[in-house]
Amino acid sequence: MSKVFIALQANEDSRCIVDAIVADNPEATVNLQPAMVKIDMPGRLVIRRTSIEERLGRDFDLQEVQVHLISLSGHVDETEDELTLSWDR
Amino acid sequence: MDMNVKKKLGLKEKYALMTRSLGWETSYEPMDAVFPQTRYEGIRIHDWDKWEDPFRLTMDAYWKYQAEKERKLYAIVDAYAQNNGHLGVTDARYINALKIFLSAVPSLEYNAHRGFARLGRELPGVGPQIACQMQAIDEIRHAQTQIHSLSNYNRFYNGFHDWKHMNDRLWYLSVPKSFFEDACTCGPFEFIIAIGFSFEYVLTNLVFVPFISGAAYNGDMGAMTFGFSAQSDEARHMTLGLEVIKFMLEQDPANLPIIQAWIDKWVWRGVRLLSIVAMLMDYMLPKRIMSWKEAWEVYFEENGMALFKDLARYGIKVPDCVELIKKEKDHLSHQAWNAFYTAGKMTNFHTWLPTEEEMDWLSSKYPDTFDRLYRPRFEHYREMEKQGKRFYNTTLPMLCQVCQIPMLFTEADDPTQISYRQVTHQGDKYHFCSDHCQHIFEREPDKYVEAWLPAHQIWQGNCFAEGADPGAPDFDPLKSVLDYWHLVYGRDNLDFEGSEDQKNFAAWRAQATRN
To answer: Mind listing the pLDDT tens digit for each residue in B475-490?
Structure first.
C-alpha cells in the first residue's frame, strides 16, 4: 500500500502534535531531520484534535496545524475532530 | 430570561456558508460573458458545485493563521538580522546557494501570484475562486518575505544586489523565468495543472523540504524560516492541485487526454527546472542531509508514484519522461555543477571544486557514476588550477529552445554523448536538450519560437552595456555583457577562493569571537 506522510516544523507545539500522531497511529515512522519532522504511515494517517489537546493542555483547533505544516501527501479530509490523510477512498 | 447559547458552526457548515453562499449567478450579463476564458482549452465542466475544498478553509480562518505565520516569520527574521545570523552559517560557500535561490525564486512566487489571481477571477466556481484567491495572496507573501530576507544577505555578500534586474537578463535565470511565463501564458486550466498540480504537488517538496532543511542544517535560520513559512502554505496548495485534477477528470471523460498531455509537458518542464536544485543540494551545501538522488527517490519516486497510482483509476498514466528521469538522477547534479564551474566568469555567484572529502561523499551517494565519470573531470580541473590554468568556458552555450538550459545533459544510455535534438520549423533550426523538450516544441511551435534565449540575444548584440560599441578595437564582450547584467568582474563572479565574500566572512567571523 502507498504511504502517506505529513511533515511539520520542529517546534514546541508540533512536538505535542507528533506525540499525538504517534499515539493514534502506532505504525507511523517518525523521521527527524534538521528543523523538521516527517511522519510516514502506510495507507492512512489520522490526526485527532482530542489527542493533541491532551498533550498541549489547551484547546486546539485542528486548522492550527497549518501554522506548523511543511508538507503532506494523500487525500485530505478535515473535520473539527480529525484530519485524515489517505490514499484509499 | 432565556439565554440562548449560540451554537458554534461546524467546519463543513461554516465552509458552506462562507464560500459557496458568496457566489451568485449573474443576471445583467450572461455567465459565459463574465467568464470568457473557460472554453477555449477544450475542458468541459458541467457542475462547479461538485468542487470540494478538503481543508475547508474560510477567509476569516485564513487571515488568522496567515497573520500568525507572518508574526513568527518576522520575529525570526529580525532576530536573525539583529544577531548577525549570517555569520553562523557553516561556511561562506553556502551563501552562494542562496544567491541562486533568491535571484530565481521571488519572481517565480510573484508570477504564481499573478497566475492564481487571474484564476480567482476567471474560474466560475466559487470554491476554486476562493482557493485560488488565497493562493494568490500566499504567493505574493512568499515573494515579499523572500525579498525582505534577501536584504539581510545582500548587504553583506556580493552578486545579488540587483536580483530583479538580473532576473530579466542573466542567462541561467531565464530558465525559471521562462518556465513561469510559459505557464502564465497558458489558458486557466493548463495553468492550474502546470502549477497547481505538476509543480506544487509533484515537485515543490524537492525545492522546499530537503533544501530548506539543509539550510537549517547549515546554520541558516533566515532561509529556514522564509522557506518553511512558504512551505506551510504549500501543503494547502498541493491539496488544491490534487483537488483540481480529480475534479476536472470527474467532470467529463473527454478531459482526460487534454490533462494527460499537460501533465506530460509540465512534469518534464518542472523536472528540468529542478536540475539547479539538484546541484544546490549536492555541491553547494557544505553539510548535506541527503543527496539529490535520495530526495528524488523519497519525494518523486515514492510520493509522486503513489499519486499516479491513485490517479490511474481515471486513466491517467505516469508521464513517459519518468523513464528518462530515472536514468538522469545519477548524473544531473554533477553535469549541472560542471556547467556552472566552467561558466564561472558569467555567474552572479562563486564556484569551486569539491574537496576530497566532498568527492568521497559524492562517490558514496553515486557509486555507479561519480568515480567513473565525474571525479576524473574534477581532478583534471584541480590539476589545471594548480598549474594556474583554471579552466573557463570562453564561448556561449547552445540553449534548449524550450527549457532554456544549456545543452549539458547527456544521452540516457551514453554519458559521453551530449543529448542534442534539432527541428526545422518554417526554415529555421531549433535546438533541444531532449526528446521531451522537442515534443513540447512540436505541439506548440508558434509559442516557443518566441523564446528570448540569452545566449542568442548576446550573439545578436542585444545584451551589451548601454552605449557600448562592439566594433571598437578594445571592445571586451564579456565585460560589456557583465555590465549589462549589473555584475562586476572579479567581485561577483569567478572562484570562491580568493573572493571578497570569502575574506569578509573570515574577517567578520573573527570579529564575532574577539575584540
So the answer is: 999 999 999 999 999 9
